[in-house]
Every structure is written in structure tokens, then in C-alpha cells.
């Protein structure tokens, strides 16, 4: 038997149990349904019926949000946003492109008309000189 004093006891292990990690989770972000934008595109800028398609997805997103299915609401909201962006971009770019084509066409036609007048006036002046 060991009677030596002081007895040495094994050192306590320095391993600590990890404390639980707490992450504060707030309320889930509610996806937007883009309904007003869809109605606007449906009424005013309905390029290739994209506004109607966007409106359908907006209504589906609002319904899913009311039921509490945030994942499906987010998917429908994303699709509504894409179709709204396409409808808006197409409705703004197409008239601008057409206006540009009309302006360049008018400039080209005026140049052609001026060249025709110059050619005809030259031909008429040549014809007047031959009769003398």
C-alpha cells in the first residue's frame, strides 16, 4: 500500500463539452408576389401576353403565401418577377427600336430623294443644252 503524502491524483481532463450553439431565427422572409406590377403589365404593356402569365404566377404566389407554403410562394414569385421584367423590357425596348428604325428610314429616304432630284436636274440641264 502506498502511504506517501500528498497523493497525486490524475489531472482533470481539459475537454469541455461544447456548449450548444444558439442561432436566433427571426420570422421567415415573406416573398413578394409582384401583383401590382403584374396588373400594370397586363393592362398597359401586354407584350406577347407576358403580363397575363406574370399575373397568373403572382396570384399563385399570393395563394401559396396565404396558405403558408413559403417555398412554393418564393418559386412563383420569382417566375412572376421574371415575366414582369421581360414584359416591361420588351414593351419599352420595342417602341424605342421601332422609333429608331423610322427615323433612320426617313433620313435614308430623304437622302435618296435629294440624290434623285440632283440626278434629274442634271439630266434636264443636259437635255436643254442639246436642243440649241
From TrEMBL:
Domain of life: Eukaryota
Keyword Lipid biosynthesis: no
Pfam families: CD225 (PF04505)
GO annotation, cellular component aspect: plasma membrane
Claim: Transcription is one of the keywords in the record: no
Biased composition (Basic and acidic residues): 1-18
GO biological process: bone mineralization; bone morphogenesis
Positions of region (Disordered): 1-20
Predominant location category: membrane
Transmembrane segments: 35-57, 85-109
Subcellular location: Membrane
Sorted UniProt keywords: Membrane, Transmembrane, Transmembrane helix
Record-linked InterPro entries: CD225/Dispanin_fam (IPR007593), IFITM_antiviral_protein (IPR051517)
Protein family according to the UniProt entry: Belongs to the CD225/Dispanin family.
Protein name: IFM5 protein
Organism per entry: Crypturellus undulatus
Gene transcribed to yield this protein: Ifitm5
Amino acid at each position: 500500500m502506498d502511504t506517501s503524502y500528498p497523493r497525486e491524483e490524475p489531472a482533470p481532463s481539459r475537454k469541455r463539452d461544447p456548449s450548444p450553439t444558439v442561432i436566433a431565427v427571426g420570422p421567415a422572409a415573406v416573398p413578394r408576389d409582384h401583383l401590382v406590377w403584374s396588373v400594370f403589365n397586363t393592362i398597359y404593356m401586354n407584350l406577347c401576353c407576358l403580363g397575363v402569365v406574370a399575373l397568373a404566377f403572382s396570384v399563385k404566389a399570393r395563394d401559396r403565401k396565404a396558405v403558408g407554403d413559403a417555398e412554393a410562394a418564393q418559386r412563383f414569385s420569382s417566375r412572376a418577377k421574371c415575366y414582369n421584367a421581360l414584359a416591361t423590357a420588351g414593351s419599352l425596348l420595342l417602341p424605342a427600336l421601332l422609333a429608331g428604325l423610322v427615323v433612320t428610314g426617313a433620313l435614308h429616304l430623304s437622302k435618296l430623294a435629294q440624290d434623285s432630284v440632283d440626278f434629274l436636274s442634271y439630266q434636264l440641264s443636259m437635255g436643254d443644252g442639246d436642243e440649241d
